[in-house]
Design goal:
The protein has 15 helices and 17 strands. It is an alpha/beta fold and 486 residues long. The protein is globular and about 65 Å long. The strands form five sheets. Strands 6-12-11-10-9-7-8 form a seven-stranded mixed β-sheet, sandwiched between helices.
């Protein structure tokens, strides 16, 4: 049975649809149609949901029914709405689009796009030799069934060593290998969070984490991060945990995605203590922990202060190595790992053995690979900062001490409008609202520096031209759906 969104619900989702920059000269029906398409691309409005009747939406938005009728007609013409007399109208997407790995939709003809929506590097040169070596190791496993719910022992030992080298003694029994960091988060949520449970997250935060929490119907509260300084306000963060006593808190302390902040050492121990007192489990996402830049020294892992199994750490190979290698992990107490493995059986049984062997060989060369990554990222970051200072000097950007992203404060609440306009000049963006709740963060934009420097400079030049056009209200906005945000 097709679900339905009511007029008041859609009006709330649309927000200030008629007042976005760059639309002052657009007819109201065109602006309304574009806003609905934006909700579809953000997955804030599901596919296959029935929209309210024209009269109902007109009353909810306090506009004429003629405007809604024209907007629905345009949505049908662009392939975003299907209607049948007597049955209503429901959302869809054009047939020239395919589903991407996050469930978002992406055009098929986007090969020339400069994609700043994905914060991930291309594969290192060492990947192919590692794959060949893994293939040679594979016969040792072929006599068995191939199911290793917690991961092959070689990889678990390698990951455990990496934690021990960071000052957090860890055994292989405390490691569970997953099919990527997002999979690790999903498994932890299945085990630790009942549907409708309360969760504290940073704002802004990783969009796919918000999607995972939404799938659990979590009640989400936020701790706002400052755009400069250390990011976390210690009094506010600890006070939020003590007062709201969430069941779980999801945090990214090392080079936070998207801001790039590094949680200071002096906040980490009080954070764990406050979580224990409040009965809150901490899920610590360490996706970027291998990527400090400019000689930045890392504080001790948050789990180093855990004495009561309140901290579960997740990480993976995607950011320092390659996103196409779907290897992640969970570090927790040995009993928690066993419970996670039991929960996993109902999801995917185990990670591919061959991929795990590739990961073992890459981790064996981690010092060489990661050092090269840091050098590469520092150069690309500086190129992006230089281009922004020259072409868009009114944007405020703090220099991250690690990670792969800049968090830019724009010169107006234009992030979504800029992202839509940028698609027309061949630049894909991840606008600020994707990193928050309820359509906020329109003054911000995440800019990864994972592409070659020349591409980053070219992208900034195109963005500068688009920004100028938004002020003038020129151009004919057409629709293209964004692809993966990672």
């Amino acid at each position: 049975m097709t679900s339905q969104v009511r007029g008041v619900q859609l009006a709330r989702l649309l927000g200030q649809w008629h007042a976005l920059p760059g639309r002052r000269r657009s007819p109201d029906y065109a602006a309304l149609a574009a806003a609905v398409r934006g909700l579809l691309s953000d997955a804030r409005l599901p596919l296959g949901v029935r929209l309210p009747a024209e009269r109902e939406l007109a009353e909810a938005l306090r506009i004429s029914r003629t405007t809604v009728t024209a907007a629905y007609r345009e949505l049908r013409e662009t392939g975003h709405l299907a209607s049948r007399r007597g049955a209503g109208s429901w959302t869809m997407l054009p047939g020239t689009h395919r589903v991407a790995s996050t469930g978002l939709w992406t055009p098929l003809d986007d090969r020339d796009m400069i994609d700043l929506g994905v914060a991930a590097l291309a594969a290192p040169a060492e990947l192919v030799p590692a794959a060949r070596a893994a293939a040679e190791d594979l016969p040792r496993y072929l006599a068995g069934a191939g199911y290793h719910p917690t991961g092959i022992i070689e990889l678990r030992e390698a990951v455990a060593r990496s934690y021990t080298e960071r000052g957090l003694p860890t055994s292989a029994e405390q490691i569970m290998v997953t099919s990527g960091t997002q999979h690790a988060l999903d498994l932890v949520l299945r085990l630790a969070l009942a549907p409708g449970g309360s969760v504290l997250v940073e704002s802004p935060t990783y969009p796919n984490a918000l999607a995972a929490l939404a799938a659990r119907r979590a009640r989400i509260s936020t701790h706002g991060l400052a755009t400069d300084g250390t990011g976390w306000d210690a009094d506010l963060l600890l006070g939020s945990i003590r007062q709201t006593r969430p069941k779980l808190a999801y945090l990214i302390p090392e080079f936070q995605n998207p801001t790039g902040h590094l949680m200071p050492a002096e906040l980490r121990e009080p954070l764990v203590a406050a979580a224990h007192a409040a009965g809150t489990d901490l899920v610590v996402d360490e996706s970027f922990v291998d990527l400090p830049l400019d000689g930045t020294t890392l504080p001790p892992p948050i789990a180093a202060f855990d004495r009561h199994s309140r901290v579960v750490s997740i990480g993976g190979m995607s950011k320092p190595y390659w996103g196409g290698l779907r290897i992640g992990w969970v570090r927790a107490s040995a009993p928690q790992v066993q419970r996670l493995a039991a929960a996993r059986v109902g999801v995917d049984m185990a990670s591919p053995v061959l991929d795990q062997l590739v990961a073992v060989h890459l981790l064996g060369r981690a010092p060489t690979i990661v050092a090269a990554r840091r050098t590469q990222l520092a150069a690309q970051r500086d190129a992006l900062l230089g281009a922004l200072a020259q072409r868009l000097p009114d944007w405020r950007v703090s220099v991250p001490r690690g990670g792969v992203t800049l968090w830019a404060e724009l010169d107006g609440p234009i992030s979504s409008a800029l992202a839509r306009a940028a698609e027309e000049v061949g630049v894909r963006l991840a606008p600020g609202p994707r990193f928050g709740l309820d359509g906020t963060l329109e003054r911000f934009l995440r800019l990864p520096f994972t592409l070659p420097a020349a591409d980053l400079v070219e992208a900034v030049g195109r963005l500068a031209a688009v920004r100028y056009d938004l002020d003038r209200g020129t151009g004919r906005p057409r629709w293209r759906e964004p692809a993966v945000i990672a």
